[in-house]
Design brief:
The structure is a homotetramer. Chain A has nine helices and twelve strands. The first copy, chain A, is α/β, with parallel strands linked by helices. Chain A has a five-stranded mixed β-sheet with strand order 3-2-1-4-7, sandwiched between helices. In chain A, helix 4 packs antiparallel against helix 7 and helix 6 packs across helix 7. Chain A is globular. Chain A starts with a strand and ends with a helix. Chains A and B meet through helix 7 of A and helix 7 of B.
């Protein structure tokens, strides 16, 4: 089986990525396709072309399976079931059926937030653990969960994927999802940017207000880190809040899922030195765990470059293993 | 197999209950044992006596398995692993091993909070569903979770059991568990009683203050309901808060676990008419679900009388089914 | 004028106090009268008897004026205008008119919360200052204000007296006054007791829970201090909250009234070592003041033993001085 | 005295306004001077030129006094005592002394936030009342207070002026003044803009997000009103919050100062139909007042066009009246 390889796709709103992945998770070759605003049929044709190209390059015999990560509510053995407005035609598209018919190998689909966690579980920072929570701190707060050595899977397809919308601030602000006080309203790059913009609008003296008072649209998570490094009071206050709220979100994840390890991904993790030790301390102080001395490590994701591709491959690998004849 | 029966135990801090349970979940006979402050060895002897008595009464052939529900961190194939201070000797006691050796049938253990959910899943309000969350609103907030047709089970044994300690009010009050802002600090009979006692201490005009100003220790959840029925402003305010916080807790459970149905148990459910419709409305408004039109019903528990016994039996039943030879 | 003396009354819900006061604020003699549940006419007769007794003892010539402190909305040149239910008949009673007719000296009335501040301003910790705020941390949060060297006095009689009901926690809990989030809901002995009772009801591990779990009605502010001294986590948390909220209340008073000094009275001040330095630090950090280096000292009341009597006397003294012919 | 007139100045950060004011508050003539970034000496020369021009036009005999409104900490009989960085040289400038020496009439200075309230008290919506609170909802939250028929005046010069920094949300966000949870952090045009920017940054579906997602710097208070008119959920939520917080601020002002009437000024008042009735309802429900049936009306400012000029004139008028010989 040493020559076998896997194909992974990561469908995004603006572009789709494909990768040829070895059994051990090394990514041998990647392709990018513009997703644009075209109908999904067009995107699909480009994905097929990539598959053909990969088969031509790698040889037809080794392909063991195909995984597809996509945004929205995803049914593993079908494709995307719900993704309002983003990619026309994707909701009705039987990805798995079409691709299995064409390639003759197992195909599985997965939510892209969950994929990031599977990538870490199978190939990255959570390797070897059966109980894992992964959070992706991006424009929103993505989530994925492994329990008992398997991705959490529910009848209605959203198991573990919506955890970023756990209510951590009852009575809090409305989230883009319609709920109030979601973790995502406080723990995401956008939430932190929104908080900085509020201080700037109120002209609170700060390096941030000085630099971005006339262009609040240019504030990013990096702005916060620069402010903290400059010793700015407002930046430190917002960072503290972010740290506490991220800590509380992780404590909630621990109380909900009882993981052995938590993995964090997303843009802000490039500046994790500024908050990860404090978040770990918060979790060490407040999370219940058994045995008591156990530390639940909060780790940086290692496979973020190819999170979607690798998570999709991890998903189909698991399915293949499940159906393998016992030896 | 029609004549087979099961034995369930529900070990509590003050008393232990046993029940003979039919395949369909009907409880044929129950026994009560004082747990007292004695060492667990003494309690155990009484449990064995009950088992002997049941075998004598039912006949020795039909016993299919034994389930044991207990507080604390419970290992299904061992017994209690962690239960600080409550029942001396229980932490080291190999319940399953001892009982299997004696009775020759499968034995499984389970956390009592989780047991309540298993009872509803197998025999009660959540029958027929593969994804279930159960919450027990008692002195604390117990929880149990079924995902993909199986009780959530993790390496470190607390999966789903600690969900009552999800942080729903970041920056909130300290909980008995040591965390801050837990659902349990707001959604439990004790939390509601604590809130009433605060209003009484502050002499806020209210039927509650009038009736219990000189005896705040006598306030119970029922007091709240009576106040609401009397049109009392304070009671209505506290009930509203409770309703919202319970709603937010359930929304969080839905976003974490994606259940098809939520079951609520516990003393306050006797007055569920006063808050359940509002909680359902909160959930209908704020919970993400797919498909969109889907209602996630919040149901009253039906098997609360024997929750621990039935949940323990459900647990061992599942284990027996897992190990049954395929036909 | 060296031989002149003043008579002060402090009418309370359960007893009324009278005192003979020298020009310099020394209290030469005091009397106590039960206020009971009798009509105010009865109380008044007893007050007159005390006045007669005082005149007999001191000699009739020196009496310079009479001050009366009373709860509720008080009109200085009339008496009590509003005091729901507490002392029958007091609302219609023309105290000043009756007493001036009988004794032939100036009589003035004042709210008892404001009286405490006047006592400190004229005879105690705020002597020599023209801008003073006084807060009395008791079962509620009383307040009084001196601005520009005069007690704050408004057309509708409540000026400065209701400051304990400033909203410091928007969206907070209902106060006995009907408003929500009042300082009094957080900063009063009763509020602190209410908070402790909440933790006890929720069985949060604590020396307080241990000692008062079975008798929450016996918890007092002292309980908190004992818990802090014992290093108890819950007690420290509640004390921190109290300290912060008291600090925020004083900052609000400073931003509203711009005092030179703040004086705190009330039972909890006996334990002021446990919180006063922290409150001062909070105020030093957060209060705006001009000039910038200025410290606004937060002082302990010095005349609490006779606060009502002395404040009432201070009130009539000021009135006499106002009407004195210029020299 | 029917021919007498008054001169008022309103010194701002970018421009200074002057006006000739009749005894009855009608403004006969106004002038504008750029304040720019020049030293105050330059501005002063321009102010003198205006005074000369006015004297030439009105005739020299009728000038009864000059009032000067200015930002910062203002001493009535001196000028500005504290105004960090905004107008170089203004802090040391003896305005009153210089102008009295030159013109031979009484001159008085006043904080511009307080001036707005004096304008309403003497010439506008609060005419005839002795106890008045005025709030100006602008980029910040200005305040002024009349008590007992006189502007509140304290030794340290900030009496009533800092009320916008009353803490109404203990534990809240840092304000530009350095305090946390100030009314100004929630009740000001900038605070509302900051809140909208937060929702936009978090991409919460809304007409605001649609229109300003790419240009958050262009959001204004008007944006909120347009959103409410369009039925937008986010706009309605933010407006509700603003309404509640403004209500809580006014309740706090009432509990602090016991006014007969509250006057609101500032840009958002152009859209007062969208929130004033709700604010009045909040106040009617939550504010303590005596007598109970009394409504404390919350009125729109009537003299906002010349608030600073008229308030300054009101200030010097009062001073002249104080020093007038009794008749």
């Amino acid at each position: 089986m040493s020559a076998s390889w896997w194909l992974g796709f990561d469908i995004g709103g603006t572009r789709t990525k494909a990768g040829v992945v070895s059994e051990d998770g090394s990514v041998r070759r990647t392709h990018l396709v513009e997703t644009g605003h075209e109908s999904f049929e067009v995107v699909w044709e480009r994905m097929l072309a990539i598959a053909d190209e990969a088969l031509a390059a790698e040889g037809p015999d080794g392909l063991a399976g195909v995984g597809i990560a996509a945004p929205g509510v995803v049914e593993p053995t079908f494709g995307v079931r719900n993704l309002p407005g983003k990619v026309p035609g994707i909701e009705d598209f039987p990805m798995r059926e079409r691709l299995e018919a064409r390639l003759g190998v197992p195909v599985r689909c997965i939510n892209d937030g969950a994929a990031a966690t599977l990538a870490e579980w199978r190939f990255g920072a959570a390797r070897g653990h059966d109980d894992v929570v992964g959070l992706t701190i991006g424009t929103g707060l993505g989530a994925g969960t492994i329990i008992g050595g398997r991705p959490l899977q529910t009848t209605n397809l959203a198991g573990g994927v919506s955890f970023g919308h756990a209510t951590i601030a009852v009575g809090g602000r409305t989230c883009l999802c319609g709920n109030v006080g979601c973790a995502e309203t406080l723990v995401s790059a956008n939430a932190v940017v929104g908080r900085m913009r509020d201080y700037v609008a109120r002209k609170v003296p700060s390096t941030i207000t000085e630099a971005y008072g006339h262009d609040p649209g240019a504030i990013t998570f990096r702005t916060l880190v620069e402010g903290v490094d400059a010793g700015d009071r407002v930046a430190k206050e917002i960072m503290q809040q972010f740290t506490r709220d991220l800590g509380a979100t992780i404590v909630t994840a621990i109380h909900a899922y009882d993981p052995e390890v938590v993995v964090l991904a997303g843009g802000p993790m490039a500046q994790a030195d500024h908050f990860l030790p404090q978040v770990q301390a918060y979790v060490d102080r407040y999370a219940f765990r058994y045995p008591k001395e156990r530390i639940i490590p909060i780790r940086r994701a290692e496979r973020s470059d190819h999170a979607g591709v690798l998570g999709a491959v991890a998903r189909v690998m698991q399915s293949v293993a499940d159906h393998a004849p016992a030896t």
